[in-house]
Write a structure and sequence with these properties.
By secondary structure, this protein is an all-alpha fold. The protein is 83% helix and 0% strand. The protein has helices spanning 9-37, 41-67, 78-93, 97-128, 132-183. The longest helix is centred in the last third of the chain and has 52 residues, at 132-183. The termini are far apart.
Length: 187
Amino acid sequence: MSLKSPETFEELFHVKLLAMYDVEQQLVSALPKMAEAATDPELKQGFVSHLEETQTHVARIEEILKAQEISPMAESSDAIRGMISDAEWCIENIQDPNVLDAALISSAQSVEHYEMALYGTAREWAKVLDLSEIAGILEKTLSEEEKTDEILNTAATKVNKLAYSETKDVDATEEQGFLGRLQEGGI
């Protein structure tokens, strides 16, 4: 079976599992960096907690691969690499801590939505292939990803308001400075 060119639906399912394995492994590497960069204590802890959960997801996929008699080698996922690259860019370039936290949440939600699509698809394919036990494992992980997305939504409500209020205050100060200079004839 060529992993690059699946010929059957079952092979396509296997390629999807291997891509999911890569996604989870990439996240095991990326989440500590996101946790380190986060400044909001709850967000920082959320990334640490999700790292532990992600390690469980890796183990589950390994279990599924073993049950399918597939060697656990990652099928490269360019999509996750792009999302991680985006988060790394934010970490390197955004100076304001609250704006950075908002960007990290956005990056994490992009990943969560991608994972929910992967797990939802794989679960449905497992059902079609009459792999009910595997479908159940995938459903469990999908539910955990959905819960993480809800947690991120809650965090975003707080962090986004903080990020906006800080930049709004900066904009207002700059505007007052501009207007003050204009009124004083300095401009």
